[in-house]
Specification:
Layout lengths: L3 H20 L4 H22 L3 E7 L10 E9 L7 E8 L3 E6 L1 E3 L2 E8 L5 E13 L6 E5 L5 E4 L29 E10 L11 H7 L3 E9 L3 E6 L9 H18 L4 E6 L4 E5 L4 H12 L8 H6 L4 H4 L2 E6 L4 H12 L3 E7 L13 H8 L4 E4 L5 H6 L10
Helix pairs in contact: 1-2, 4-5, 8-9
């Protein structure tokens, strides 16, 4: 494909040739033919060089973490001679825009490098990658589609915590494993007809009323997670980068439990309703970290509705930590109800308006939670997350 310069030269060569013929000027013929030949040679050389190429890219020497500069190295291996043609690569990332990288020759390879500055957390798909081949004078340009190279995954910045804010007070166990609680429970597996001599405590009254005869519960012993970290990805309550703060808080809480060798589950209240069980600091933790890196605030279901379902992984856990920026009355009531039932629960409230330049909000639900003995941590813009989540015996003053 001719570049604007190539089209200009082609038009100029044609115009000079017509002028030479019209006015009988022999001196203009060589100039006109030279311009036209230059365009033709450029087109042929680019066409010969624009062949399939092996494409490799590498983002930095380690795993990118949010806020870091990410150095991306690009390498092409041409399948044929390039001649004097120059090559550059154009990469188009979702949400990061387009980058054009000039490549330099290094033996039989072409290499280039560029830097993405202060990249936010997220999964950035590489929508398209193309090699652009040009002649030395910029008259002709050819494009070669390159094979996909996956996505750029930028991990959340996790904070190391020794002691959690929820582990202060009379109900704390200072991070020790729950030895007096068996991490399992009996769940209703099925129902069957009542047999004479069985305890009436096993009767399933709903099935009995529906069938008109006594039915008893078949119980099945199933393992339960010790700790559930519930991340609220409500799309309606995000302001600025408040959701990134929620992700950092949830990841830091989960990491603390994993380091302590406690069985945990990450539950994300997004549109997809994701959950990842983590028992080791190896592959399962990596899966949870990738989930946190890619999650977006797409949730539509209120958090309270998720906690109503007693069969869900969040409600079934012995200990529950909620990370949210939305405290409606229904959610506060569910949390208080769980606390009064002697089931451990804590809340990390991210004050979203402060992340958009607003003043700290006065959330009455926080007062009700604290009055009910629920440990609460409030995260605002500029706060030290390690201090907010990890300081023992911390008192957060909240005004309604």
């Amino acid at each position: 494909m001719l570049t604007p310069r190539g089209r200009l030269l082609l038009g100029l060569g044609g115009a000079l040739y017509v002028a030479a013929w019209a006015f009988g000027s022999q001196a203009l013929y060589p100039v006109a033919i030279g311009f036209l030949l230059a365009v033709l040679i450029a087109a042929l050389s680019v066409h010969a060089a624009a062949r399939p190429m092996a494409y490799r890219r590498r983002a930095g020497s380690g795993e990118p973490v949010e806020g870091d500069d990410v150095v991306v190295d690009v390498e092409l291996e041409p399948r044929g001679p390039l001649g004097l043609a120059s090559v550059s690569v154009v990469e188009r990332f979702a949400r990061l825009g387009e980058r054009r990288i000039p490549l330099r020759r290094d033996g039989r390879f072409l290499r280039g490098r560029y830097v993405l500055r202060s990249v936010p957390r997220g999964r950035y798909a590489l929508d398209d990658a193309t090699a652009l081949v040009e002649d030395p004078f910029g008259l002709e340009q050819g494009s070669v589609p390159l094979a996909e190279q996956g996505a750029l995954l930028v991990l959340p910045r996790i904070v190391e915590l020794d002691l959690l804010f929820s582990e202060s007070g009379p109900r704390a166990d200072n991070g020790r494993r729950l030895l007096l609680r068996r991490p399992s429970g009996f769940d209703v597996h099925s129902v069957r007809e009542y047999e004479e001599g069985e305890s009436l405590r096993k009767v399933h009254w709903k099935s009995t009323a529906r069938r008109g005869q006594l039915m008893v519960k078949e119980l099945q012993d199933e393992p339960r997670d010790e700790v559930a970290i519930l991340l609220d990805a409500d799309a309606r309550s995000v302001a600025g980068d408040s959701f990134d703060a929620q992700v950092r808080a949830a990841g830091s809480l989960l990491r603390t439990q994993v380091v302590r060798d406690r069985r945990a589950v990450l539950v994300v209240n997004s549109l997809r309703q994701e959950f990842v069980r983590v028992q080791t600091a190896l592959g399962e933790w990596r899966q949870a970290l990738e989930t946190l890196a890619a999650v977006e605030p797409t949730g539509q279901v209120p958090l309270a509705a998720l906690l109503v379902d007693d069969s869900g992984p969040a409600a079934r856990a012995f200990e529950l930590a909620l990370v949210t920026s939305r405290l409606d009355a229904a959610l506060v009531d569910r949390v208080v109800h769980r606390s009064l039932a002697q089931r451990r629960v804590s809340v990390v409230y991210v004050d979203a308006p402060t992340f958009a330049g607003g003043r700290p909000s006065r959330e009455p639900g926080l007062l009700k939670l604290q009055a009910s003995g629920v440990p609460v941590a409030v995260v605002r813009r500029g706060d030290d997350l390690g201090f907010v989540l990890g300081t023992a015996m911390r008192q957060e003053t909240v005004r309604a």
